[in-house]
Design a protein that fits this description.
36% helix; binds histidyl-adenosine monophosphate; BirA Bifunctional Protein, domain 2; five-stranded mixed sheet; alpha+beta; Rossmann fold
Length: 416
């Protein structure tokens, strides 16, 4: 029989690596809650039409990367490729806009895209993201960018570049599209195959294509920023001024367009510059999508958000000192004392301590090895003599010292 394996591009996160994940997730929750965000959890599966209508038909995600299937009632369902569309669906479905002028949501969870797996690019990957509804910016835009940079810096990820751009609003994108097409059409035969194929449908993608032949042509293309209306220009200038005031470093990148169709005005990406990332160095992507809520049937509501890929953050997360994962590991000198060990462990857990015990009846040596491997701070050794005297032998596994402690004062001693 062939071996059963996980689906290509979808990884197990084993207990031995989960500490680093918890660190990222804990720091993210703390950071965004300081900014007034509250968590939302939406289903992993949504009607396919939600993603087609919001992300856009001529995008890589919708064209070729979605996991779409028919359920038994012949409905087309899709594993979410991102979180923004689902949040908007929930925001509309629960009429949140009727009761809150501004809503600030965050989420953490797995997303699914059938991309070619590589370092930093997976078919199931985790995003941490934020969405704000009801604030047209530009100060909240600056605040979000600043939030991402301070979150990453607090984790020790400091080799970063923030890139920003504006796509404008209203018909700016259309006008820009026209002038870009006028520039690209005569050069079409020199573009990469991918770009030639989607030139008419989505010419903006040529700008952020990775193919060298496209990059040479994109370098000379007309600039988006030259096509902005006066209002859009002022919005972008105020965003830059706010980032300057916060001292958040950034670079204006007029070629930044991003791969989803829903964006308007502010766009941003945070690139990791460290060597560990390889080609997938976009840690965070986000932007404003002021038209989406109306397009999906709601009232005119401005919106902005971002999402970070947690696997990519892990690739550049500096190693932290290993933390103790257990307070105490209870060890018995003889197998007959196992029930006693389980009882002591139970008492200590009730006091709020993290406790494990080896209840198999193995040798002292093997139990001590397990205590060490489980990164317990203390080992509590129980022997017959100690038991009779109402004591346990407490070994400080970090300091390498030991002492006899009364059972009744064990909790107080450990708390110290
Ligand atoms: P996105 O740029 O498609 O934007 O994805 C955001 C981040 O998710 C990327 O910068 C990257 O770190 C991570 N990511 C994307 N695809 C993969 C993959 N296959 N493997 C590993 N990591 C990946 C969005 O998803 C938008 N929803 C962001 C947003 C929120 N815009 C407004 N609100």
């Amino acid at each position: 029989m062939s071996k059963l394996r996980s689906v290509k591009g979808m990884n197990d996160l084993l207990p031995s690596e989960i500490g680093r994940w918890h660190r990222l997730e804990r720091a993210f929750r703390e950071a965004v809650e300081r900014y007034g965000f509250a968590e939302v959890r939406t289903p992993i599966v949504e009607p396919t039409a939600l993603f087609v209508r919001s992300i856009g038909e001529a995008t890589d995600i919708v064209e070729k990367e979605m996991y779409t299937f028919e359920d038994k009632a012949d409905k087309s369902l899709t594993l979410r490729p991102e979180g923004t569309a689902s949040c908007v669906r929930a925001y509309l479905e629960h009429s949140i806009g009727n009761v809150e002028p501004v809503s600030k949501w965050y989420y953490l969870g797995p997303m699914y895209r059938r991309e070619r797996p590589a370092k930093g690019r997976y078919r199931q990957f985790y995003q941490a993201g934020c969405e704000v509804y009801g604030d047209p910016g530009p100060y909240v835009d600056a605040e979000l960018i600043d939030l991402v940079v301070s979150y990453l810096s607090a984790l020790g990820i400091t080799e970063l570049e923030v890139q920003i751009n504006s796509l404008g609003s209203g018909d700016t994108r259309e006008r820009y599209r026209d002038s870009l097409l006028a520039y690209l059409r005569p050069l079409a035969s020199k573009l990469s195959e991918d770009s030639q194929r989607r030139l008419e449908r989505n010419p903006l993608r040529v700008l952020d294509s990775k193919a060298p032949e496209d990059q040479a042509i994109a370098a000379e293309a007309p600039s988006l920023l030259d096509h902005l209306s006066e209002d859009d220009r002022a919005h972008f200038a105020d965003l830059c001024a706010a980032l300057d005031a916060f001292g958040t470093p950034y670079r204006v990148e007029p070629k930044l367009v991003r791969g989803l169709d829903y964006y308007t005005r502010t766009l941003f990406e945070v690139k990791g510059l460290g060597a560990d990332l390889g080609a997938q160095n976009t840690l965070c992507g986000g932007g404003r999508y002021d038209g989406m809520i109306r397009e999906l049937g709601g009232a005119d509501t401005p919106a902005i958000g971002f999402a970070m890929g947690l696997e990519r953050l892990l690739l550049c997360l500096p190693d932290a000192e290993a933390e103790d994962t257990l307070d105490v590991f209870v060890i018995v000198q003889k197998p007959e004392l196992r029930l006693e060990a389980a009882k002591i462990a139970r008492t200590l857990r009730a006091e709020g301590l993290a406790v494990d015990a080896d209840l198999r009846g193995t040798s002292m040596k093997s139990q001590l090895r397990r205590a060490d491997r489980s990164r317990a701070r203390f080992a509590a050794v129980i022997g017959e003599a100690e038991l009779a005297a109402g004591k346990v032998q407490l070994k400080d596994l970090r300091a390498g010292t030991q002492e006899d402690v009364e059972r009744s004062s064990l909790v107080a001693r450990l708390a110290r």
